[in-house]
Amino acid sequence: MFQLLIIVGIVVIEFCVLKNILSVNVKDYQGFSTRFFSPSNNSISTGSVIFWILASPIFSSLAYIFTLFVNSTLECNYIQFDMLWLISVLFWLWFSLLVFVLGRRKLVNWLFVSFIAGSSILFNWYLSSISFTGDVKDILPNANNTTFQLYLILGIFLVSTIQIIYERDDYDLRRTRFILEKLDLYLSKFKVLFELEGEELYLALAILIVEDFERPKFIRYIENIIKSSTRNIAQNDSRNDNHSVSLLVKEIHDLYIIGEDDYPYQRIRNFALKYNNSSRYADDVWKIYDEVSKLDENIKLLKKTNHNVSEELI
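^ that's the sequence the OP posted. Answer follows.
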């Protein structure tokens, strides 16, 4: 029981350390959550791959040292340590659950994640089997051991394989498909969007994508339960998603002024800042607006298709 509590506690600590102390955000890595608002980077360093493979095993080793200290202090073997390798399993299961809950499953390079997670779990299990013996000296590596040298060579090969998997993934295509799915969903579900054209429509769609990305359905469900001041898909004071989009469309009608120039960067940012007073938010809206505007032909086709479907239903 105590070993299970330690495993859960260490996983929580690992997430907190990665995010708050080391400032590691999983969405900075293409294969993990997503780099949705960042330029694509088709390479990953060897150090980054090794870091993600070894992160959980290192925390398992710290948990092992902690249990030895507690047992030594209590002068008994009250806390067991034979299952500490499950820290890697729980960490990657929790990560996968987080990705699904946030609705980012289709943005993740799951082959890359599977290789990282599998390598981490296997290494942690091996470390636990040969080193977690009750003697802290056994966790130190022995370079004179030929078996150790063989595993080191296999490890280098595995890291290289993971890098190749990462670099062969077309994240731009993955992101474009994700955006197109969202556009199809919004245009089929929220008919009030048909009132907008051109810049105004792209702006509304960009805001919906950003808000939906940052506040997925599960989070919005909780916000409605606790009666948050901003809620539903467009994150405003609304009754439901349809009302939320209607309020967004009205606000764009009232406040957004289309300029004469062909580059609306400043106009988009100014409106985004009024909608949510955050420079990062304004930058994100502009980046997605730029992506959406490049899909003009797709949007026209989606509007036509959904408009025809709507007429048939009437």
